[in-house]
Amino acid sequence: MSLVINEQTPFFESLRGALKRYPTNESGIIVKTTLQTPVIVSSSAELLSTVVAEDIGVLIISARPHLWRGAMIRTLLDTKSFSNIACFGVHHITVEDRIVLQRGIQVYSMQEIMVEGLSEVTDAVMSYVRGWKRFIIFLDMDVLDLAFVPGIKRGISAGMSSRELIYVISRLKRIKTFAGAYIFADFDGSDTRSVDVVAKLLSELLVD
User: Fold this and answer.
1) How far apart are CA 78 and CA 45, in angstroms?
2) 96-121 per-residue burial string, b: 16 or more CB within 10 A, e: under 16
3) pLDDT tens column, 49-63
4) What global pTM score does this model have?
5) Cα dist. 129→13, 70, 198 in Å?
6) Quick count: other Cβ atoms within 10 Å of Cβ 27?
7) What is the β-pairing status of strands 2-5 and 30-32?
8) pLDDT value at position 2?
9) Which residue in 196, 90, 76, 95 sits closest to 136, CA to CA?
10) Which residues fall within 8 angstroms of residue 131, CB to CB, at 6 or more apart?
11) ∠146-86-124 over CA atoms, to 5°?
């Protein structure tokens, strides 16, 4: 249906330029495509509440589970009556995260991916989210290794490659219950390499 780019995002103009082959409205914020699900790009997680509902599961693809007190996903978990959450690609878990994860949140870690193989773990997470009525992907670009997003704030080493992430996204979006994606990308607009990775991910998402 549409791609929504938060115009407060530091790399807003750079990303618009990278996606110039897609038509925009007068403000340039919404890019109409043939995609039947919404995709949001923002440098904050504030808009996440607009796409989360009781019948929608959230697959978090991130280095961190985003479950610390005050995080948008933690707030939604505490205040909304939904419990379908899973984490993929996690490689930094705090003590507080572990306490919240005990609520029954499924975790597919980077360590598991390295041991079992990306294809096998992707198969497992796809099987898991198919058990949900609908699901969205919350993608934090920090899941990527710093070599691929050098300008990202609070980045963590030993993450995925951009090719591996695109592979995962290309498979997940084909699930019939896929209901949209939220890309959380917090880096400076001058970091053209990181912007290019986001543009490639969006190009993958925007193609049916």
Assistant:
1) 16
2) ebeebbeeebebbbbebbeeeebeeb
3) 777 777 889 999 999
4) 0.85
5) 34, 26, 24
6) 8
7) antiparallel
8) 56
9) 76
10) none
11) 90
